[in-house]
Structure prediction request, 85 residues.
Amino acid sequence: MAASRGGARFVSTTSRARLAHAPLRLSALVEAPRHAIAEVLARHEQVRTLFDNGWLTLFALEHGRITARWHRGAGWDEGGLARAA
Prediction:
């Protein structure tokens, strides 16, 4: 059964054994200090869970440019985003 391979996210994009459409994720881009964003995530477990479980992708912005991406268990990863933006 598809649910055992990827959970509800996988099931919602499949029709029996084939993909019904390419799965897309909503991205949230927030222009605020990373520590402030992390504090909000710490206070609101349900919001953090959306990012930690891969339903949403979180990016931090500085001066309109992506500077970091949030990763479950690891926090912020700059990973060359500022150079690439």
